Amino acid sequence: MTGALWCVVPAAGRGTRVGGMCPKQYLPLAGRPLIEHTLERLAAHPQIAGLLVTLGADDARWPGITELNGKRVMTAPGGAERSDSVLAGIDALPATVGQDDFVLVHDAARPCVRLADISALIEQGCAKDGGLLGAPLRDTLKRADAAGCSAQTEPRDQRWRAFTPQMFRRGQLASALRAAAKDGRAVSDEAMAMELAGYAPLLVEGAEDNIKVTTAADFPLAAYLLSRIVT
Ligand SMILES: Nc1ccn([C@@H]2O[C@H](COP(=O)(O)OP(=O)(O)OP(=O)(O)O)[C@@H](O)[C@H]2O)c(=O)n1
Ligand SMILES: C[C@](O)(CO)[C@H](O)COP(=O)(O)O
Predict the structure, then answer these.
(1) CA of 1 to the centre of ligand 1 (A)
(2) Which of 4, 29, 174, 211 could form a disulfide with 34 if both were Cys (CB 3.0 to 4.6 A apart)?
(3) What is the pLDDT of residues 100-123, one digit of tens each?
(4) In a mutational test of the pocket of ligand 1, which residue from 82, 90, 161, 219 has the highest number of ligand atoms less than 8 Å from its CB?
(5) Which atom of ligand 1 is the closest one to the Cα of 11?
(6) Shortest CA distance to 73 belongs to which of 11, 6, 28?
(7) The ligand 2 atom nearest the CA atom of 190
(8) Tens of pLDDT along 36-69?
(9) Is it the case that residue 9 has pLDDT exceeding 80?
(10) Pathway involvement (predicted)?
């Protein structure tokens, strides 16, 4: 069992795959900026103590939220890559968050995460070296060739899609991210940094509607999911 956890929310991306000038986390979703849905959902979780949001340089769009549902909301400058933003957020956490305390990392671009899935990650991940939400691949996987044709069918067994939140001990995650950066290794998520450091993060199956809003087509889907998912 663990106490209350802080959650780092990387929100310093540019949203280039959506297009346009406004980073996707500030585009409207169901009438409000996408990021507000994500932060409110995280702040609603009883085991989340506070949020540390990493922002783009000179981000004028950040609405200046300092508290949600009685939880403190802090900000820190993000970095060039998502992993840089995550590390910046870890380093900016309050000193009350110990090096051995678990911390969560959740994409600002994932507004539909279920509170029950966060609870499952916290409960199951604390018994291990931490873990991440994900789901086993349910479709056949193809490797495309340069012409956009199916060149090969990839093995699907034991393949999972990785979601967020991901949860690790503050000190171990910071060290793993620093080591990967020092080695020039691009890491797509926190779990990869931990794997490179020799840990085996637990995969905790979560709902597949925990989508990452990545392209413009994801906005109406996310709006529908938000209307259907209570928590
Ligand atoms: N340097 C970066 C890059 C991404 N992110 C955040 O990481 C999350 C997931 O990243 P992604 O979906 O790739 O967002 P973007 O990088 O903004 O998207 P794109 O690759 O289309 O530009 C998002 O909440 C994004 O804001 C971040 O904090 N810092
Ligand atoms: C961290 C992540 O959400 C796991 O699926 C994903 O890797 C982030 O998206 P990106 O496009 O790789 O930045």
Answers:
(1) 31
(2) 29
(3) 999 999 999 999 999 999 999 999
(4) 82
(5) 26
(6) 6
(7) 1
(8) 999 999 999 999 999 999 999 878 899 999 999 9
(9) yes
(10) Isoprenoid biosynthesis; isopentenyl diphosphate biosynthesis via DXP pathway; isopentenyl diphosphate from 1-deoxy-D-xylulose 5-phosphate: step 2/6
Q: Would you list the DSSP string of 212-225?
A: ---STTHHHHHHHH
Q: Look at residue 194 and give its three-state secondary structure.
A: helix
Q: Is 82 in the pocket of ligand 2 (CB under 6 A)?
A: yes
Which range of residues forms the domain containing residue 41?
5-134+161-228
In a domain, 144, yes or no: no
Q: Is 189 in the pocket of ligand 2 (CB under 6 A)?
A: yes
Residue 3: predicted pLDDT: 65
Which of 14, 188, 203, 213 has the most ligand 2 atoms within 8 A of CB, as the residue to mutate? 188
Q: Which residues are 67's β-sheet partners? A: 72
In-domain check, residue 39? yes
Kindly give the residue spans of alpha helices, DSSP state H, lying in the chain.
34-43, 82-92, 115-125, 170-182, 190-196, 218-228
* pLDDT tens-digit readout, 182-218: 999 999 999 999 999 999 999 999 999 999 999 999 9
In a domain, 176, yes or no: yes
Residue 11 placed within a domain: yes
Residue 120, domain CATH: 3.90.550.10
